[in-house]
């Protein structure tokens, strides 16, 4: 697929020549996104050879549209279903706004809007999703949880050659899987719910994007992904305040379950994210992920030191402690600068 193919597809849809047409920088995905402008209006044109991922995006976009959720409408799909046109929702991601402004009153308001809309989506979609339409996994159960744990093991522990006792670590992983797959309440889990996947328009309206990996899982997962993402660096008191704010949208029983889910989901999310930084940064050499590795390690280390139940996972705790050692830190620097 060439840039010209995408442009031709866009111009056939609009019926006129594009005023502007350019490619957007890629992040962690293999998808290729373009911006096309015609008659003063912008659109996003996306090419992706992964048909199953596309079909999941089409399904959830249609569902969200019917439920009046703030998400992009898919306007046109090519015959082979690998190229599609979607709404242009804004010039900036919430991540860009946070990076530019820090924790201003505007950012605090946008964070609260995001959490409110997330809770509304979770409530609106209850019993309305056909999870057989999901991309990779229907449920956040043994398979994806184990995959997340091995992401960390493979692309951090093994790549950095950190010593650990294999059978002890695997038994701890098994124990952690059992704990996480039984967390309640369950419902829509968008999976990669973070500030760079939230668009903000000129009226400061919030729109969710990049939800094709959605599945059924613990409702708290997306909240943790959002509030505890390394790049945002929200202060602890603000994160706790926003957790309380999110809990306020639920009845007492569900709020109590959500609170009990926070720490286990923090652990699995920190491990999975750091594994992704290892793969995308140390292996694939993508700058955004390289720059995030130190913060990802710090988040995981601080969590490990402060959660009492980490004592139940001594091999994992020892491995995390080793991430802060001079030898491992030197190894990371060598991999980054001497590649």
Automatic annotation (TrEMBL):
Which parts of the sequence belong to the Aminoglycoside phosphotransferase domain? 51-250
Per its UniProt entry, which superkingdom is the organism in?
A: Bacteria
Q: Which InterPro entries match?
A: Aminoglycoside_PTrfase, Kinase-like_dom_sf
Record's protein name: Phosphotransferase
Q: Which organism is it from?
A: Chryseobacterium gotjawalense
């Amino acid at each position: 697929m060439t840039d010209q193919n995408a442009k031709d597809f866009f111009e056939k849809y609009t019926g006129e020549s594009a005023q502007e047409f350019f490619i957007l920088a890629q992040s962690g995905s293999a998808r290729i996104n373009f911006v096309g402008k015609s008659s003063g209006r912008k659109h996003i044109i996306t090419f992706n050879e992964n048909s199953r991922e596309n079909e999941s995006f089409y399904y959830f976009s249609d569902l969200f549209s019917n439920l009046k959720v703030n998400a992009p409408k898919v306007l046109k799909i090519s015959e082979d279903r690998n190229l599609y046109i979607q709404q242009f929702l804004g010039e900036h991601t919430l991540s860009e706004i946070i990076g530019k402004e820090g924790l201003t009153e505007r950012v605090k308001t946008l964070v609260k809007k995001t959490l409110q809309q997330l809770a509304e989506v979770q409530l609106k979609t209850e019993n309305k999703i056909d999870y057989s339409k999901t991309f990779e996994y229907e449920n956040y159960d043994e398979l994806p949880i184990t995959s997340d744990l091995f992401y960390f093991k493979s692309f951090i522990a093994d790549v950095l050659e950190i010593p650990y006792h294999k059978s002890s670590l695997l038994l701890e992983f098994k124990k952690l899987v059992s704990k996480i797959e039984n967390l309640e309440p369950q419902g829509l889990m968008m999976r990669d719910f973070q500030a760079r996947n939230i668009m903000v328009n000129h009226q400061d309206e919030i729109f969710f994007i990049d939800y094709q990996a959605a599945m059924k899982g613990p409702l708290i997962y997306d909240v943790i992904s959002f509030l505890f993402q390394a790049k945002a660096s929200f202060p602890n008191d603000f994160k706790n305040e926003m957790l309380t704010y999110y809990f306020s949208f639920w009845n007492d029983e569900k709020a109590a379950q959500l609170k009990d889910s926070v720490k286990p989901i923090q652990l699995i999310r920190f491990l999975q994210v750091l594994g992704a930084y290892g793969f995308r940064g140390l292996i694939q050499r993508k700058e955004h992920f390289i720059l995030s590795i130190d913060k990802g390690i710090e988040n995981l280390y601080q969590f490990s030191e402060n959660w009492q139940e980490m004592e139940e996972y001594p091999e994992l705790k020892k491995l995390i402690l080793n991430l802060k050692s001079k030898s491992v830190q030197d190894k990371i620097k060598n991999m980054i600068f001497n590649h």
